[in-house]
Amino acid sequence: MSIKCRFCRKAVIYPEQRLCVDHLSKFIEKRVDKVLGKVLGLEEKKILVTVSGGKDSTGLAHIMALRDLNMELLYLNLGIPTYSDASQKVVEDFAKARKLKLNIITLNDYGFTVKDFHEKQEEFRSNTCSLCGSAKRYLFNKFAFENGFDFIVTAHNLDDFASFAVMGISSGDLRYISKTASVSWPKKEQKTVGRIRPYFHVPEKASLIYSLSNNIPFFEGDCEYVGGNKQGDIKTRVAELERVAPGFRQHLVKFTRKSGTPETTAPKSCDSCGYPSAIDSCRFCRIKERLR
Ligand code: FES
Ligand code: ZN
Ligand code: ZN
Questions:
Q1: Count of domains in the chain?
Q2: Residue 277 maps to a domain
Q3: Is 19 inside a domain boundary?
Q4: Which end of the chain has fewer CB atoms surrounding its CB within 10 Å, N or C?
């Protein structure tokens, strides 16, 4: 006998919570609204939703577009040969179909691409994904700040945050996850735009089924540099642990957030670009310098 939804007895599409297609949508949208509700007067804020073209980003942008918000989209073309142009096309079609304003920026405008990091990752002593992540964070913030946005919205999900927590534990550095919350507030004096992470409590599988069952288009390919990426391996193992011990991801994120030590050093800014940096020159400017 097939399993029935715990609310309406229709066929289950998301077995982890015993939900049918409609109740899965309600489950996700409720979690998104709970996070959005933390920002008072959100309707008056200028919001930039970053979209990579992947299932989480278009699914979340779809939900955000159904709300009465002053929002635009941002796509960053990273110059990844088998990924960037194809995912950009998906995002362009997505935005056009919903009449959403789409901003496009390219890493190449700064003189390099992710392919260049990849070819020089040994010299950087850092893997491609980590360099790429730094470039994304930097450029999202810079674009948003320079264009008067109050908040950036990203579609990282619960599995992402749980794997960031494991990475933090394994390296003995909980700084990132201890500072990460579903909402971070703008700090204009530090040239930092606020962040909203509406999928903070949304499991990756729920996001995938939501996008598929609501016919939300997304780019299905993976970035070609993802192979051998530590975070990907950790994510797979976190999902296995969640199966054995339901609730593991949520508790892990909660505990690691509590265990972080508060920032004691005064925030600095980069000598070259003026954006926040822990040392004299920010990581983005150092990457740019080295690839020059
Ligand atoms: Fe950044 Fe793959 S998307 S390295
Ligand atoms: Zn139902
Ligand atoms: Zn800089």
A1: 1
A2: no
A3: no
A4: N
236-275 per-position pLDDT tens digit: 999 999 999 999 999 999 988 888 766 656 678 999 999 9
Query: Which CATH number fits the domain that encloses residue 231?
Result: 3.40.50.620
**CA of 226 relative to ligand 1 center, distance in Å:** 7
The ligand with the least distance to the CA atom of 225 is 1
The range of the structural domain enclosing residue 151 comes to 25-266
Ligand 2 center to 3 CA (angstroms): 11
Is 232 a domain residue?
yes
Atom of ligand 1 nearest to the CA of 223: 2
**Taking the CB of residue 69, how many other CB atoms lie within 10 A of it?**
17
Q: Which atom of ligand 1 is nearest to the CA of 229?
A: 4
Which tokens in the block code for residue 290? 């080295």
Torsion of CA 141, 65, 162, 168, to 10 degrees: 0
Q: For residue 79, which of 35, 114, 129 has the smallest C-alpha distance?
A: 114
